[in-house]
Amino acid sequence: MQLDNGQEIGDSLAWWVTGPGEGALRHVPVRSGENNANCGWVTVEARYSGISRGTEALVFRGQVPESEFQRMRAPFQQGEFPFPVKYGYANVGRVISGPKHLEGRPVFCLFPHQQRFQVPQEAVQVIPDNVPAERAVLAANLETAINGLWDALPAVGDRILVVGLGVVGLLVAWLARQIPGTQVTAIDLNPARRTQAEALGLRFAECPDENDYDLVFHTSGHPSGLPTALSVAGQESKVVEMSWYGSQRVEAPLGEAFHSRRLTLRSSQVGQIPSYQQPRWNYGRRMRLALELLADDRLDCLITGETRFADLPEAMGDILANDGHTLCHRIVY
Predict the structure, then answer these.
(1) In what residue span(s) does the Alanine dehydrogenase/pyridine nucleotide transhydrogenase NAD(H)-binding domain sit (predicted)?
(2) Could you tell me the fold of the domain covering 141-267?
(3) Which of 163, 171, 192, 308 could in theory staple to 145 by disulfide, Cβ–Cβ 3.0 to 4.6 A?
(4) Rg (Cα) of the chain, in Å, rounded?
């Protein structure tokens, strides 16, 4: 959705990726439909936004493949891949004008890193009273995890392995652990991930301890994780691939026991709700669910750092570096 019509009412600073590993804060016009309150538009003043490290690192480095330029567009993206582009989708703010029932309310919006913006009211979701605005930056990641479980269809009592403990992997494991009887193991080569895994009540390991899992999620973002996921899936079980590699080539070992075990390799991507859910669910309802589930205080362990919005041009490279420590990084406005 592009904000390219309506009236200009001022400008705001926004984060733009301007070249490979480069970015800047630029003034952008803030536009709305005529008489925005009566037409159902809202003006939002940002308080926080979250950096989705996996996807935003690919954008920052110019690694979005040309074949995916359109499918990879964020809902309120401006500019075109590879550069310059205004990209992001985890903005938490307060409605400062709009329909009376929304004025003053804290909201989440799939909007890039920007101080102030206007969107149709249906593009924002009110944050529940029991969810701190600071934590709500996790909503987009949790929405991805929800969709991953919908694609996987885990069952009561399943032995489940999650390979790769970034934010999405940890959220997938946390959700799966709440299904009665499941035995969930969360693995990562980085031993520092034990802290977050155990804080969420998960069993942590650095490598799989069996090779007969009922369901395996691959969420590491590294090509080396997929062979691990395939090697430990049991007979007739499913491997759900949730990593997105951009233009990077990935080798999938489909020899060995892949056929004899009759494995299923299934992709999962948050951009489309699974077909069996579509009669009852839409994107708004899915996002409301994600926000409601964020009421668990333990999820604060997934936010591992903060940066002032004004400091983004100097800080973004370090935030997106693969240092093994950063999970969700929060921007403060």
Answers:
(1) 158-209
(2) Rossmann fold (3.40.50)
(3) 171
(4) 20
3-state secondary structure string across the chain: CCCCCCEEEEEEEEEEEEECCEEEEEEEEEEECCCCCCCCEEEEEEEEEEECHHHHHHHHCCCCCHHHCCCCCCCCCEECCCCCEECCCCEEEEEEECCCCCCCCEEEECCCCECEEEEEHHHEEECCCCCCCCCHHHHHHHHHHHHHHHHHCCCCCCEEEEECCCHHHHHHHHHHHCCCCCEEEEECCCCCHHHHHHHCCCEEECCCCCCCEEEEEECCCCCCHHHHHHHCEEEEEEEEECCCCCCCCCCCCCCCCCCCCCCEEEECCCCCCCCCCCCCCCHHHHHHHHHHHCCCHHHHHHEEEEEEHHHHHHHHHHHHCCCCCCCEEEEEC
Domain ranges of the chain: 7-135+298-332, 141-267
Report the b/e string of 30-64 with b at 16+ CB within 10 A. bbbeeebbeeebbbbebbbbbbbbbbbbbbbbbeb
307: its two tokens: 């940066």
pLDDT of residue 271: 93
Q: What is the pLDDT of residue 32?
A: 58
Distance in angstroms (rounded) separating the CA atoms of residues 287 and 277:
14
What integer pLDDT is reported at residue 1 of this predicted model?
37
Residue 173's nearest CA partner among 220, 105, 135 is: 220
- pLDDT of amino acid 38: 57
Query: Rounded distance, CA 292 to CA 281, Å?
Result: 15
Do residues 110 and 76 make contact, with C-beta atoms less than 8 angstroms apart?
A: yes
Q: How many residues does the structure list for the chain? A: 333
pLDDT averaged over consecutive 10-residue blocks of the chain (333 residues)?
A: 49 97 96 60 98 92 94 95 97 97 98 98 98 98 98 98 97 98 97 97 95 97 95 98 89 92 97 97 98 98 97 96 85 98
Place of tokens 């709700």: 273
48 vs 46: CA distance, rounded Å:
6
